[in-house]
Amino acid sequence: MADLRSNFVGIRSPNPFWLASAPPTDKEVNVRRAFQAGWGGVVWKTLGLDGPPIVNVNGPRYGVVHGADRRVLGLNNIELITDRPLQVNLDEIKAVKRDYPDRALVISLMVPCDEESWKSILSRIEDTGADGVELNFGCPHGMAERGMGSAVGQVPEYIEMVTRWVKQHSRMPCIVKLTPNIADIRKPAEAARRGGADAVSLINTVNSITSVDLDLFAPQPTIDGKGTHGGYCGPAVKPIALNMVAEIARNPETRGLPISGIGGVTTWRDAAEFMALGAGNVQVCTAAMTYGFKIVQELISGLRDYLDGRDMALTDLIGRAVPNVTDWQYLNLNYVTKAVIDQEKCISCGRCYAACEDTSHQAIAIDPGRVFRVKEEECVACNLCVDVCPVEDCITMRELAPGELDARTGLPAGGHRDWTQHPNNPMVAAE
Predict the structure, then answer these.
(1) What's the DSSP call for residue 24?
(2) Of 257, 389, 394, 399, which sits most exposed with the smallest number of CB within 10 A?
(3) Of all helices (H) and strands (E), which one includes residue 341?
(4) Contact 201, 262 (CB under 8 A)
């Protein structure tokens, strides 16, 4: 049976599944329930300095994007950091860690961007027994307007500066949580590394408005007739998160920097994909908020079965796909595939034909008897027909053998030639 025990920057947990900093980790009772369900760790909901308590709205805090079957594809939240007193949180953290010493317990922090504020809060959390801190440089709403959250995360110089303060004034491992609301995720990750960060976590939520109430003409969630932008998370942001994790994992300046993957992890397969692209563990929020804490049991059993089936250790999975992530210009232009329709599986719905005929390359014909056939002389192998077909494996892509002629171009398949070598590339022609 695969060993799922995790050691992430010296923080040990019985499995690599942590709850992300969010409402599910706001209170002792929640965290205890999560640990009883089997979560390997939690990142406690973001703490701030003492003083006047944070004020949250008292109306709806979440907007949603549903799939056709009412499945939650994404949540937009306008909630701020914890509105509970700092000392109450610290006392609860200490109690939980005392009773669950084998679980990872990391504290998320967000305070004003000055050294004294960071030094002050770090000194107060040292004796909780927590395993590390996560610097919340990602929250895009409410706190960013106060010069915190993504307002820091969008400025690499600030990231480096604050990370240095934290490493100077704390013994704890430091994870920097990055915002996706930036043009190039590599820059803040590089700044975190320069500042001495032990790891980065990403992505935080995406700045968004999920919907508009067409009766009130206001964004949702709506508070007294008004709405605002919030942070978007859930399965819909997973592709954005995977790309950003991969960019950091393969960037020469950040290669080897430990990554905690966040963004739409709902199934064991999602988690495995993050790990294959370089994440040492994953953090989960929306799935727990949608299905409850016990979803971790499916994550654990699914990942363990996958690793057992391939006779892999967890460490073998981490980063396994990174060497296969490249830039477009290095893709093999001599690799050729063609769509193939399995007539026994085809239900003659015509979806492939409509999609290809109207929006792609007119490469599917309708023969008598409503039989759909691929016209190889027109097929560019775009994969759209595969993606829209409602029957799994009804349409697949066949790789042309080396030397086999492409009916569309008349050229043989096989060998390797990418854009850097192609005669149509003006840079090649200039040489």
Answers:
(1) G
(2) 399
(3) strand 337-341
(4) yes
Active site residue 385: no
Q: Where are the alpha helices (DSSP H) in 39-141?
A: 86-99, 115-125
Query: Are the CB atoms for 274 and 260 separated by under 8 Å?
Result: no
Greatest extent of the chain over all pairs of C-alpha atoms, in Å: 78
Average pLDDT over residues 17-22: 96
| Residue 26: Cβ-neighbour burial (10 angstroms; 0-12, 13-18, 19+) | buried
**Distance in angstroms (rounded) separating the CA atoms of residues 210 and 51:** 33
Report the candidate in 65, 19, 108 with the shortest Cα–Cα distance to residue 234.
65
- Token output for 259: 């990554």
- Average pLDDT taken over every residue of the chain: 94
Question: Catalytic: which of 113, 139, 356, 382?
Answer: 139
How many other β-carbons are positioned within 10 Å of the β-carbon of residue 245?
31
Query: What does the CA dihedral 259, 263, 269, 271 come to, rounded to 10 degrees?
Result: 30
pLDDT band at 54; cut points 50, 70, 90? confident
197: amino acid identity, one letter? A
> Which structure tokens are listed for 203?
């992505």
- Nearest CA to 118 out of 198, 182, 172, 71 is that of 172
Question: Residues for the chain: how many in total?
Answer: 431
Task: Extract the tokens encoding 173.
Answer: 């491992």
Strands 11-13 and 6-8, sheet pairing:
antiparallel
pLDDT digits (tens, 9 = 90+) for 362-373: 999 999 999 999
Residue keyed to tokens 């009883």: 36
Look at residue 190 and give its three-state secondary structure.
helix
Q: What are 45's strand-pairing partners?
A: none
Is 325 strand, coil or helix? coil
H/E element holding 298? Answer: helix 295-309
Sequence-distant (≥ 6) Cβ neighbours of residue 189 within 8 angstroms? 178, 200, 202, 248, 251, 254, 257
- What does R_g of the chain's alpha carbons equal in angstroms? 25
The pLDDT value given to residue 112? 86
